[in-house]
Amino acid sequence: MGWKGWLCYALEARGAQSFMSVGLRCNYHRDYYLALPPAHPFPMSKYPLLFEKLLSSALLEPADVETPGEVATEDLALVHTRDYLEALTHGTLAPAAQRRLGLPWSERLWRRSRLAVQGTLNAARTAFEHGLAGNLAGGTHHAFADHGEGFCALNDTAVAIRVLQRDRRIRRALVVDLDVHQGNGTAAIFAGDESVFTFSMHGERNFPATKMRSAIDVGLADGIGDDDYLAELDRHLPAILQSFDADIVFYLAGVDVVQGDRYGRLKLTDDGLRRRERAVIELVAAHRRKPLVITIAGGYAATAERTAALHAIVFEEAARYLAMRGSR
Ligand SMILES: [Zn+2]
Fold this sequence. Notes:
The chain is an alpha/beta fold. It has an eight-stranded parallel β-sheet, sandwiched between helices. Helix 1 packs parallel to helix 11. The two termini are 19 Å apart. The chain binds zinc ion. The site of zinc ion has 7 residues, from loops.
């Protein structure tokens, strides 16, 4: 039985009311999308396409969608420097900083960046109540405290963790970053901080050229496929979950590991990606059901539609897990 069949089976077992919702809760804002210059390589339309796909497949009910506002500046300032935030606020990034960011500054970019950070923070708060929640954006792990890189202006994961620590909701957080690019900004922000464990599994020869040091970095060779990739994940993630007692887990589910990605260099199949998402969700759940926050991070397939379909897989697996949990 495919996951859809399985999901229907599990829902039937729970009774008719369950058809109202499988309980997948996600943050989304229509302004996650912003128009970029026509030749720009970033697939902005993946955000609305992902949202529409999850709604049309009934994995996500409108009532389970939370619409974030713009994150407060004082929350951003827990991670980002005042100078950087000033430059983002007023559009005064130096040309070199602008190039490094890779997205043209605009009021709308500044707004969408803040909406996406709040989306991850909201998802974290929801995850405490429901075990698991998502943001249909976020995972902007190349953002450092004082600059942006690689299409990432603000580090949503880092801000969410610092806000939850400030509010005494958590002491310790685990970041599981499986985007094909190293989570260099996140690694730098939490360097030397034993309250946050950063795990990054990425293409060793891929961007960024200079890697920062995560708590654990797994640099993968170009061209590896499903079995090798999943074996590496299995070699590390259960042990990390066992040894680091986190109060919450942030999962950056980048899909740029899949074969054919414009920037990826790895060769996972769609099925391999699905196995990865299922493994992460089930492993985290198996360790005292830690709250899990899913953000989408990167994906650059041939079309935005294909990218969105790949991003949908982690939410399909999340819905499957929730249905399975509910039917027990
Ligand atoms: Zn990436």
